[in-house]
Amino acid sequence: MKTILLLVSLVFSGMALSSCTNDEGDDLEVLTPEETEEQLALTKDNQKA
Questions:
Q1: Which residues, 6 or more positions from 39, have their beta carbon under 8 angstroms from its beta carbon?
Q2: Cα(42)–Cα(12) distance, rounded to whole angstroms?
Q3: Angle at 44 between CA 38 and CA 45, to 5 degrees
Q4: pLDDT at 37
Q5: DSSP one-letter string for the chain
């Protein structure tokens, strides 16, 4: 029984580790606080219109 639980936990942990990949590529977009505030202001303006 312990062996089965160990194998099941290994399978699930393997699936979790394999799903934690960065498929977006090397382009990393870094947002500054000013850009974030501008985006929030734009979305609020668009919602009012």
A1: 31
A2: 42
A3: 90
A4: 78
A5: -HHHHHHHHHHHHHHHHHH---TT-S--PPPPHHHHHHHHHHHHHHHH-
- Per-residue pLDDT, 9: 96
Give the tokens for residue 37: 């505030």
Could you give the CA distance from residue 13 to residue 7 in angstroms, rounded to a whole number? Answer: 10
The tokens describing 27, both together, are 């382009």
Quick: pLDDT tens for 2-46: 999 999 999 999 888 877 666 666 666 676 777 777 777 777 777
Residue-wise burial string across 21-43, b where 16 or more C-beta atoms lie within 10 A, e elsewhere: eeeeeeeeeeeeeeeeeeeeeee
More confident residue, 49 or 30: 30
